[in-house]
Amino acid sequence: MSVSLELEKHRRFIVGFSGSSDSLQHSLSDYLRINGIYWSLCGLSLMDPEYIRSDFNEEEIISFTLACRNGTGGFGGFPGFDASLVYTLSAIQVLALYDALDRIEDVEKTVSWIASLQHENGSFQGDHHFPDVDTRFVYCAVASLSILDRLDAIDCSKTISYIVSCQNWDGGFGLKPGRESHAAQAFCCVGAVSILKSVDSIDKDSLVFWLSTRQDTNTGGLNGRPDKDPDVCYSWWVVSTLAILDSLSFIDVPRLVTFVRRAQDVVDGGIADRPEHMADIYHTFFGLAGIALLDETGGLKAIDPTYALPVDVVARILG
Known about the structure:
Elements (H helix, E strand, L loop, with lengths): L6 H10 L16 H15 L3 H4 L3 H10 L17 H13 L9 H9 L19 H13 L8 H10 L17 H13 L8 H9 L21 H11 L8 H10 L18 H14 L8 E2 L4 E2 H8 L1
Helix pairs in contact: 1-2, 2-5, 2-13, 5-7, 7-9, 9-11, 11-13, 12-13
């Protein structure tokens, strides 16, 4: 039985998640707040770019986002919190959605802070408090600097070499060399080399095969690792990676779309991690983003698989 995409209900879910249309930032735990604002605004933008202005207070959100920037030049998840590459990328994405990147004062300070997190081998740590490296941080640094048009601030060749070293024998990528392959890490690595115009540096064939085996034969959903349950969020992490590699034909798209649609709350809106579970803002966004890549009849705007932003926003940023 075909299940339609309940866009208007998802819109109400996103807006109502905060309790009122002009206080979105009060809806989430402090440390995740800037991430949640990005997920919410980008999800609405995929339905209609005007929703982020009609459903929320644009100036309030821009001001809140800028207030998350601290003395380092990086952004935290909430005003007064320590800066992290993960939060910095979300903040930059929020400002990009509102065409407000020019509101960042002394952008060179942000650029320098990001560049200071690069290690000699090309990897990145997420902040200055914890030395752990992770391919998530590589993607966040590369994407942030690309949006700010300052990739020249880092050693891109070393970063490419580091990413190549993170590819495993099975074709997947781990959070660092030798670590278990995971679909989200595959997106981070492929997204980064895509931005750096070096996709040919990785073993694409083995990666595409590994990604294609993430599809569950029973439900049509995708998982992040072998022998794990399918989860709606991987309709973004896996699908975006395959889209960058021009290899979406390697999965059963109709069955995956059906899986995501079955995870909708058709009464109150929102999308869950899998059917019959409770909807949340994270899976709502990544479910919508995946559908935007997979289903041209779903009523959503096109999304860029590399930057996780609407195609028209990326075109504006990159000129």
